[in-house]
Amino acid sequence: MQPVMPDFPHVKRDFAASLVVFLVALPLCVGVAVASGVPAELGLVTGIVGGLVTGPAECSRS
User: Fold this and answer.
1) How far apart are CA 53 and CA 42, in angstroms?
2) Which UniProt keywords apply (predicted)?
């Protein structure tokens, strides 16, 4: 019996899309952190953690 490997045809497109969203959201996260009165590093961490949490989420197909 051969192991079944899942087919993920959308991984390449999802990675490219998440990279674009990361590059757009990162300055926004840092700006919101500075405007809130916390250090800019916390905005950077928030942007990275948010991307890591939502990145693996499956894309919506409507």
Assistant:
1) 16
2) Membrane, Transmembrane, Transmembrane helix
